[in-house]
Amino acid sequence: IATKRVRRYKQAKKQKPDIRRTIRKNLKHGGSLLELVKSKPKIKKQNHYFLSDVSISCDWISIWFFCMIYAAQNSFNRARVFEFDNKTVEISSALQELNIVDAFIKVLDIRRTNSMIQGKSNMYTAFDGFLNQANLNHRSYVMIMSDCRDWAGPKYEREPLSADLISKMKRKAKRVLVLNPESKIKWNAADSCVSYYEDAGAESFEVSNLEQLADLISEI
Fold this sequence. Notes:
alpha/beta; six-stranded mixed sheet; about 35% helix
């Protein structure tokens, strides 16, 4: 992931000639093209927010989620990381550990302190908590790692109210992406809320291995 992003940054820094400034600079040479002026690369200041689902329904994939966020946060300078079940807590400080095992131990302590061991998913209260903690703006990318199975969240006429909060995130942020570890054939089956979240403005991607994750992050 880091290698792909470095390659992308190097390509972005390849400056194109600035024709207008080149002509003006070469007026002192009588118009002869002796000095080439290159355009300055645009600096993009983006904020990345990661939300990792650690509820019961994602117990089978929680270690994979942790590896994803640990790898990803090392590739971004401006990243904040959260975990959620029926509430949301920030774990950014724990992920600063150089050793992944030490980071995981610290994250487990945070989960125990906040009673997030085998909690049921309530994405409405979790997303509401996230919106209160995050400072989203037009430069923000929100990446939700979840199977989108909102077991305990409130619903109105079978539609999960958590979709309204996804819509609120989308209005505030540049992009809201759902990284779903389940195969697409399982989306929108049973209690899956993928289609509701997509209707609210989220973009859904199947991310079940590092190659898919690296491709997605390099695109972002």
